[in-house]
Amino acid sequence: MSEIIVRRAKREDCKVILELSKELLNYEKMSDKPEIDDKTFERDGFDGEPLYLCNVATCDEKIIGYAVSHYNYATWCGKGMLLQDLYVTPDFRGKNVGTKLLKAVAKDAIENGCHKLDFLVLEWNPAREFYKKHNAINLSSKEPWLRYRILEKNLKELVSE
C-alpha cells in the first residue's frame, strides 16, 4: 500500500471534503440534515479569519479521510477544541488513518494552547472503541451534563420575541 500522508486541507480540497462529509452523514443515518454548499465551506475555512481547521489524509494524492475542528471556550479552563468530524473512507479503516488524523488534531490543539478536545460520538457508533483506545473519556457517563441545541428557525423566533 502507498504511503498515507496527513496534511492541512487546501481550498481546492473543499468539494471532496464535502462529498466525504455526505458519506459521514449517511453513515450516521443523518442524511436529512441541512447541507452547506462548497462555496460556503470554502469561504468559512479559507477567507478572512477561518472558522475551522481541516486536515486531510491522502493516499496517492487522493483524499481518503478528513478531520474538521474548531475552537471553543470554557470559563473553567479557557481555550479548547471541538472535533466536529473525523471520517475515513471504508477501504482505509483499520489502517491507522483515523489515528493519524486524530494526532493531527491533537497537535493543532496543543500548538494553539487548547486545554481539552471535545467531540460527540453516536451511541451505536463502533468508533467509540477507537476513541477509548486513545484515552477519551465518555463524559455522559462521568458528568451530569446534557447537550442542548437551538436550531436556526428557533433562534430567529427568540430574537423576534
Describe this structure in words.
Residues 4-156 form the N-acetyltransferase domain. GO terms for molecular function: N-acetyltransferase activity. Keywords: Acyltransferase, Transferase. It comes from Trachymyrmex septentrionalis. Belongs to the acetyltransferase family. The chain has helices at residues 14-27, 38-46, 97-111, 127-133, 139-142, 152-160, and strands at residues 4-8, 53-59, 62-74, 78-88, 117-119. The model has no long low-confidence stretch (mean pLDDT 93). Strands 1-2-3-4-5 form a five-stranded mixed beta sheet, with helices on both faces. It has a single domain, classed as Aminopeptidase (3-Layer(aba) Sandwich). Helix content is 36%, strand content 24%. The N and C termini lie far apart (59 Å). The radius of gyration is 17 Å and the shape is globular. The longest helix has 15 residues, at 97-111. A hairpin with a 3-residue loop joins β3 and β4. It is α+β, with helices and mostly antiparallel strands and 161 residues long.
> H/E order of the elements?
EHHEEEHEHHH
What spatial order of strands do you see in the largest sheet? 1-2-3-4-5
Alpha-beta content class: alpha+beta
Number of domains: 1
Number of strand segments: 5
The CATH C-level name is Alpha Beta
Main sheet record: 5 strands, mixed
Strand content: 15-25%
Rounded Rg: 17 Å
Specify the CATH homologous superfamily.
Answer: Gcn5-related N-acetyltransferase (GNAT)
CATH architecture: 3-Layer(aba) Sandwich
CATH fold description: Aminopeptidase
